[in-house]
């Protein structure tokens, strides 16, 4: 079967394989192949592969030695992996139990299987979980060369946003001052610091801030990261005019914090503003809110309008990359 593969010289193969594995991009259903001095690594999501790699389509041999959950079930399973924790989303208890059993019996490296038991709720953005197998809801997640420890029961984290976080992180330059207003366990802050930025992360969730500090240490950037537990509106006065880059990843209510973002912005600041809106006008409400908050103090330029993913029927999760330049 023809599949998408990253092709690299054989001598670069292990480093490339490691990078793709860190980003959870390797398609484990197919064998990695060597031919004519090149290594071919099958990838699960070609659109998420960094532009520096060469993508080709070629015949790949299926892996026959691993038993996957789908091999053990009478239905097509859906699940996410977060380190050695596997997340499922099943309303039917019998189906959820069968899926958990199949995951445990499969070749997946797993210690815990959890089922979503509620939507994200409260100011700390956590959800309830039903533990189907195992005990601990703690995990260590790896993406794009970074490692994040977290506990699903006490913090918010979405592995589905790895590609988006990498898109933003690649824009960060050495020496920048970056501020994440709703930082969680640090999935923006840590890669920013690894790219040479001085980074500040604020979150109202005390557990998330403790994990952020741990993750900064895990990734060797503790000296470049400041983690603050509190309401960003109360922290802003200490960092007025400080930020060259701001992340506002709080869809549904980021607009309530735009005055704070403007106070934090330096004379030339890029804001990554996340929103969830109807597909008929996904960017307009956010852009109008930013202009209302920032003008005329700042000249506002929308540098990119970007759809992150579908959120619900007719609703999109979007990002506006906006540059604020202080007006002369």
UniProtKB/TrEMBL annotation:
Key words, A-Z: Cytoplasm, Methyltransferase, S-adenosyl-L-methionine, Transferase, tRNA processing
Stored InterPro entries: MeTrfase_TRM5/TYW2, SAM-dependent_MTases_sf, TRM5-TYW2-like_MTfase, TRM5/TYW2-like_N, Trm5a/b_N
A GO term from the CC aspect: cytoplasm
Domain SAM-dependent methyltransferase TRM5/TYW2-type: 79-326
Annotated coiled-coil segments of the chain: none
Record GO biological process: tRNA N1-guanine methylation
GO MF entries: tRNA methyltransferase activity
Keyword check for Lipoprotein: no
Entry protein name: SAM-dependent methyltransferase TRM5/TYW2-type domain-containing protein
Species this protein is from: Halosimplex carlsbadense 2-9-1
